[in-house]
Amino acid sequence: xxxxxxxxxxxxxxxxxxxxxxxxxxxxxxxxxxxxxxxxxxxxxxxxxxxxxxxxxxxxxxxxxxxxxxxxxxxxxxxxxxxxxxxxxxxxxxxxxxxxxxxxxxxxxxxxxxxxxxxxxxxxxxxxxxxxxxxxxxxxxxxxxxxxxxxxxxxxxxxxxxxxxxxxxxxxxxxxxxxxxxxxxxxxxxxxxxxxxxxxxxxxxxxxxxxxxxxxxxxxxxxxxxxxxxxxxxxxxxxxxxxx
Amino acid sequence: xxxxxxxxxxxxxxxxxxxxxxxxxxxxxxxxxxxxxxxxxxxxxxxxxxxxxxxxxxxxxxxxxxxxxxxxxxxxxxxxxxxxxxxxxxxxxxxxxxxxxxxxxxxxxxxxxxxxxxxxxxxxxxxxxxxxxxxxxxxxxxxxxxxxxxxxxxxxxxxxxxxxxxxxxxxxxxxxxxxxxxxxxxxxxxxxxxxxxxxxxxxxxxxxxxxxxxxxxxxxxxxxxxxxxxxxxxxxxxxxxxxxxxxxxxxxxxxxxxxxxxxxxxxxxxxxxxxxxxxxxxxxxxxxxxxxxxxxxxxxxxx
Lengths: 244, 303
Fold this sequence. Notes:
The complex is a heterodimer of chains A (about 240) and B (about 300). With about 240 residues, chain A is α/β, with parallel strands linked by helices. Chain A contains four helices and 15 strands. Chain A folds into two domains: about 1-90, Beta Barrel (Elongation Factor Tu (Ef-tu), domain 3); about 95-200, Rossmann fold (3-Layer(aba) Sandwich). Chain B is of the alpha/beta class and about 300 residues long. Chain B has one domain: Aldolase class I (TIM Barrel), CATH 3.20.20. Chain B is built from ten helices and 13 strands. In chain B, the strands form three sheets. In chain B, strands 3-13-12-9-8-7-6 form a seven-stranded parallel beta sheet, with helices on one face. The model of chain B has no long low-confidence stretch (mean pLDDT about 95).
């Protein structure tokens, strides 16, 4: 974990509610795709945990949806403004288990952390399929970006206004060796029940600290109690215990 | 002895700053980012006889200048704390630590304290009779002078270490409870635990927290802490550890003026993991600013 100041380079809408923010700063603590950062926002007591979409030597890309006061405040920040950010949080995805043909399944704002994962898997020489699920055509983002990385991309929309009609589970490819996913919990459950292989899922919970101190975001797993922020957010399929 | 040192129940602290239980785990997350030996001490995660998961999630809700938590004393149980956590802690912390203990019966408290009494690194036992997030225990002992005294007596009977009883602010008369603990043999009083609070989501119309209510902490509760520390410190002869919304060096001094011998810092650790380190580093210049030569001189110094 590292606490440092980042400067906003860009903060632009991708659609009505989803924004892309790029920041310049020290990303040395970020070690795997699927990790997150925790952002201090002026006037809000708790930090806002946001998954890392992409990073390179000195820049960080975040894609976030406006869901409440904090993210609304974020959406109004201008380039040049600075943010206090904790980086290097969470375990992230393990790419060593992917096999030759990993499948990436993202739902809504669960899509962003899969971008850097896709980049890494392709750099490792793997044949990556990506299924992106959205409610409707207007919400679709990052289809071209995933294609540019060299992945085979399918988009599914719940209302059928774009791509395959239905959920990501209606657009599974024939062949894949392992899956990685991030999205709303009902989607994760559906994938858990549909997938023929093992895989990894990224979970979300209301967090206090985001670095393992407060036990605010604990969950029960087959292998014991885990903190989503510190021992997760990524869990292996075999350890997941559905409670709710 | 430095100008920031204080004596808490017979044990010297280099400075009065103590991360509060439940906001600092067993120290490791923080030891990864700074040397936690700069702390006066810290109060480790509330420990019970048996392992506990705690309450269902969501357990956290944000508030203006604060937060609500309803963790519900998640901990691995006293055996695991002794066998796994304390040996690990020894490697990153070389001072006496404050063991925070909770229970669901008088016997539970006594059992857990008796086990921790044998641990060399445990300096103080902080007996939490004030957790608002568990049913049939915790706070129910801290809202009745008789029950608080009974727990205090039972714990004192099984340990030679100083016993600090941690009180709840969710009472009508905090002084009567503090006095009952003092009369029962408590070596110190710490306060305040969190204030019982609640938030409701406007979209879903459901409570934000699965357990509906939880403990409200953060800067918003600081004035309540100052008031209660002042009331209790003026009513008892034993040392008082003040806490509640402390987030800067000035707050430490204010609580000490109210009567605190040492000061715990809670929620601030969760939003800034360096909070305690920063407070300790800022103390000398804030002392200079207010003409304080030695922190010991200002304890209870409200005029």
